[in-house]
Amino acid sequence: MVETISADEFRDRIDARRRGDRSFTVVDTRPEESFEGWRVADAVHYFYKPFHEFDLADFERETGLSPDDSVVTLCAKGKASDDFAAELAAAGYEDVTVVADGMRGWSAVYDRTDVPLPDAPGDAPPLDLVQVQRRAKGCLGYLAVGGREPGEADRVPSDAPADDADGTDRVAVAIDVSRHGDEWVAAAAERDASIAAVLDTHVHADHLSGGRALADDLGVPYYLPAAAADRDVAHAFEPIGRNETLDVGGVDLKALATPGHTDDGASYLIGGAAVLTGDTLFTEGVGRTELQFSAGGGDELVAGGDGDDGAAGAARRLYDSLHGTLLAEPDDVAVCPGHFAVANDGTTGGAEPGDPVFTTVGDARRGIEVLDLDRDDFVDRITRTLPEKPPNYESVIAANRGVESPPDETAAIELELGPNRCAAEPDAEPAADDD
Fold first, then answer.
1. Are strands 334-337 and 274-278 parallel, antiparallel or unpaired?
2. C or N: which end of the chain has fewer Cβ atoms within 10 Å?
3. Taking Cα atoms as reference points, which of 291, 357, 301 lies closest to residue 129?
């Protein structure tokens, strides 16, 4: 008998296997090119096309599996793998499971975890920082949860009284929200908090932002860094400028201008305890600098350019943002990036999905080799090799600027399939031309 499980249940089984509590083999039936480009870690490949004759001997020869093994089948949408699972069951395999919606479903799997923060003074307002992890893509968003009483700030995103209609008693803001904004709503509900504002750190290139949509659904302000106005963002947003603050239930969220990955990039310092760095600084590296700009010096998205708008000019701005702004924060401030690395083979390097992905300013300064370089060497290293671009990145950017829109949910899913690729790879071999 064939069992069908959701992508979330598949995640739980993978975690159980990692703990040694389960044993199974994932068989990916997609074409080889799709498998090589992006897959679940430790999956084996066997191409299967529905309504074609199934050769059991060939399958067992290629995969080394037998009817005694537990098999989980996976494809792009869950259809071919369902047919394939039926073939295995008919051939005597008794433990066969299908992942509903295939890799499309896997792309929408999330984990939520608390980020450990340095000890705060006894009179400081409460602060929780929830990291929302999109496991298959490595995208990271955040929910910052403060207390209810507003403090002194340039702007107060919520002036709702303590006995507001939804019964919550804490204030939260959502940062770098994906298309699946319900993950942030659920995280807020778990902490008895109401989301009072939604922010993005920049105009993203590797995934569709759900920030504007979530803000509209909740009837709260949507913020982008003020510099996003120069990128001709078409949808409405509240600009948050350099060193401006929002109040998050008595906790200050301060916008730090950190251009480089993009010219509109900002990082958000929350309560002096954590800095959300978007695609500027990661736990093991820094952001790439050419997605907004062509390597030759013109803006890919807006005609024109002043000659310093290419990857090298952006790398110089990134260097200044890193050394002049982020690394100037105290050593114990938690660095919370916008992504962790997901390789094409599904492995995640030093990140363990489900565990918080973060470092500290001090550990980043001491442990990330590229940060030891002087400005010229840094620029040369960052721009010497350009990693593979995110799939459909130009269309993703256009959608996040509000100048294009996927026609339906299927198109949105297809647009952002695959892992994120927003980090620089200064030690990699030059990538093949993928323009």
1. parallel
2. C
3. 357
Residue 22 near residue 13, CB atoms below 8 Å: yes
- Cβ distance 155 to 253 under 8 Å? no
Q: What is the mean pLDDT of each run of 10 residues along the chain (435 residues)?
A: 96 96 98 95 96 94 97 96 96 97 96 94 90 96 84 47 56 97 97 97 95 97 96 95 96 97 96 97 94 47 42 94 98 97 92 95 97 96 83 90 91 87 66 33
How many whole angstroms separate alpha carbon 355 and alpha carbon 347? 15
The angle formed by the CA atoms of residues 27, 100 and 178, to the nearest 5 degrees, is 105
CA dist., res. 293 & res. 302, Å (int): 9
- Locate tokens 């869950």: which residue? 78
Which residues does 170 contact at the CB level (< 8 Å), separation at least 6? 126, 145, 146, 147, 148, 191, 192, 193, 194, 249
Contacts of 380 (CB under 8 A, 6+ apart): none
